[in-house]
Amino acid sequence: MKLEGKVAVVTGAASGFGEAIARSYAAEGAKVVVVDINDQLGPQVAEAVGGTYVHADVSKSADVKAMIDHAVKQHGRLDILVNNAGITHMNRPMLEVAEDEYDRIFDINVKGIYLAAIHAVPVMREQGGGVILNTASTAGLRPRPGLTWYNASKGAVITMTKSMAVELGPDKIRVNALCPVAGDTPLLQAFLGNNSREAFEATVPLGRLSTPEDVAKAALHLASDEADFITGMAYEIDGGRTI
Ligand SMILES: NC(=O)c1ccc[n+]([C@@H]2O[C@H](COP(=O)([O-])OP(=O)(O)OC[C@H]3O[C@@H](n4cnc5c(N)ncnc54)[C@H](O)[C@@H]3O)[C@@H](O)[C@H]2O)c1
Fold first, then answer.
1. Homologous superfamily of domain range 7-237
2. How confident is the model over 1-21, as a mean pLDDT?
3. Active-site residue, 150 included
4. Ligand 1-lining residues (CB < 6 angstroms)
5. Which of 10, 11, 15 should be mutated for ligand 1, with most atoms under 8 A from CB?
6. In the chain, where are the structural domains located?
7. Are 40 and 53 in contact (CB under 8 A)?
8. Which of 10, 70, 138, 215 has its CA 20 to 30 A from that of 16?
9. Measured between alpha carbons, how far is 243 from 241 in angstroms, rounded to an integer?
10. What is residue 190's predicted lDDT score, i.e. its pLDDT?
């Protein structure tokens, strides 16, 4: 068991990549706090992994504080925080994305990580270390037209990750970013827009999109002690797409 006795908080864990991460962490012995705003699917995932569900909007400071407090109260510590919740705008020309949509993307994808750091880092510092994973994307490494503001939010996630890793290294807090290529989750259609799945797959050397299990395997490795000298990485899970 790679995460025996560890306590993990996974945001956006009601579906997609976050759900797969929660399942794999629980299967490897972690106690998992499932965080989402989807109150239908979130509790189901929590039950399936033997964990607890917390409704928290990662863009709201009070909610984020409550999710961290819950983990500490329930389990006495916080070893792993996966900032995975994220949204996108529909694939379309950059000037057609409304200001409120832009704000919401940055509030969730970027400010959500700031808020999580504000509330989780003091806990990890106090206990002598921890692991933070931020779900970025290949979009932040190799931006393509139609997703400009989403791409920019993920670029920010990668820079935040590297900067956090440098600043938190002395506290033994490792920080890495997951960078999946487009994958089979409810967000996929928004990413593809009018582009065909087949055309996209043809741009991936390994010839397919990512799966939630691909992302979970990487998230497990980076959270485990096997990766105890790995920090500040933008870890590509992309079948070679960004080469
Ligand atoms: N699917 C892809 O192609 C792809 C590729 C690269 C990166 N990503 C990133 O992966 C992450 C997970 O997305 P996914 O593809 O699994 O999609 P998903 O929609 O299945 O999962 C996202 C989850 O986040 C939750 N969420 C949304 N806003 C929230 C908020 N304010 N507070 C708490 N939870 C919130 C949703 O309810 C949902 O359960 C996102 O950060 C996304 O940007 C996705």
1. NAD(P)-binding Rossmann-like Domain (3.40.50.720)
2. 98
3. yes
4. 11-12, 14-18, 36-38, 57-59, 84-87, 108, 135, 137, 180, 182-183, 185-188, 191
5. 15
6. 7-237
7. no
8. 70
9. 6
10. 95
CA of 11 to the centre of ligand 1 (A): 9
Quote the tokens at residue 116. Answer: 């999580």
Q: What would the pLDDT profile of 179-238 be if each residue is shown by its tens digit?
A: 999 999 999 999 999 999 999 999 999 999 999 999 999 999 999 999 999 999 999 999
The predicted pLDDT at position 15 comes to 98
- Protein residue whose Cα sits closest to atom 7 of ligand 1: 137
Angle between helices 112-127 and 148-168 (to 10 degrees): 20
pLDDT at 184: 92
Distance CA 113, CA 9 (A): 13
100/61 Cα distance (integer angstroms): 19
% pLDDT > 90, the chain:
100
Residue nearest atom 16 in ligand 1 by C-alpha distance = 16
Cβ-count burial 167-185 (b if 16+ within 10 Å, e if not): ebeeeebbbbbbbbbbbbb
Cα–Cα distance measured from residue 114 to residue 33, given in angstroms and rounded to the nearest whole number: 19
pTM of the predicted protein model: 0.99
- The neighbouring-strand residues paired with 173 are 130
Contact 17, 36 (CB under 8 A): no
20 confidence band (pLDDT: 50, 70, 90): very high
Compute the Cα dihedral for 8, 178, 225, 115 and give only its sign. Answer: negative
